[in-house]
Design a protein that fits this description.
242 residues; alpha+beta; single chain; 10 strands; 4-stranded antiparallel beta sheet; globular; Jelly Rolls
């Protein structure tokens, strides 16, 4: 049996249901030509015409918008196995920017390859639609976070989400969030000073540890309880076994 474990895209899509050997072989072809980008580089900017979609193999990518006053809002995180806007080519013009937050390994996927996957690989097509629906569910949860959860639970909830998403693709290691306090502030919609204060509160409670700007979770069960994190919106019921 062809294993999806070494292919992070296959591992991600496997969460939507089992894939056949021919599907896994095709997904191996999709990731065959990766390239590297440093942290804080744009893949595509607001107003540009998208020609390809991008797959994240390693690192962390964000979707963001910049206001006229220069303030940035990070509205989504893309982690290993995530495709940055599957149907973005349909738009014709970007209404937001996509950039790296860390050093990343990525793959460009052409419109033709996407069309081939959707037209000729029904199990992959279903999994890609599942992935798009999960992206929408994550956005809904972020809106709930910003509107109804206080900042410490909001930040803790974010850490729990990233932990779950990385675990689902077998990419969860000791370090969880290699993000600056400014980037956390841009995600949570608060000032950098406030983000620093909230992170310090979580650390003082022993819910997270911080080393070299990397946040680790010593007890994920305890953090989930504090954040009131359920995780059903990630739809990982069929996650592949370790």
């Amino acid at each position: 049996m062809h294993s999806p474990m070494k292919n992070v895209l296959a591992r991600k899509l496997w969460n939507a249901g089992r894939l056949a050997s021919e599907d896994l072989k095709k997904l191996d072809d999709v990731i065959a030509d990766p390239f590297q980008l440093d942290a804080r580089e744009d893949l595509i900017q607001h107003g540009e015409d998208p020609q390809n979609v991008h797959l994240v193999l390693s690192g962390m990518v964000c979707r963001y918008k910049v206001l006229q006053n220069g303030k940035r809002a990070i509205v989504a995180l893309m982690l290993p196995g995530d495709i940055c806007d599957l149907h973005v080519a349909i738009l014709g013009r970007m209404d937001h920017s996509i950039g790296t937050l860390t050093e990343c390994s990525l793959v460009k996927i052409s419109r033709g390859v996407i069309e081939d996957l959707l037209d000729n690989y029904p199990r992959i097509r279903r999994a890609l639609f599942w992935s798009t629906l999960v992206d929408e569910a994550i956005l809904r949860e972020w809106l709930v976070n910003m509107g109804r959860r206080r900042a410490d639970k909001q930040m803790a909830h974010l850490f729990c989400e990233v932990h779950a998403r990385l675990t689902a693709v077998n990419r969860m290691h000791d370090a969880l969030m290699p993000l600056t306090q400014e980037e956390l502030a841009d995600i949570l919609g608060v000032s950098t000073v406030h983000a620093q204060r909230v992170l310090s509160e979580l650390r003082n409670q022993g819910l997270v540890t911080v080393q070299d700007s990397r946040v680790a979770v010593p007890d994920i069960v305890r953090l989930r309880q504090f954040a009131e994190f359920e995780g059903d919106y990630l739809h990982l019921e069929h996650a592949a076994a370790e």
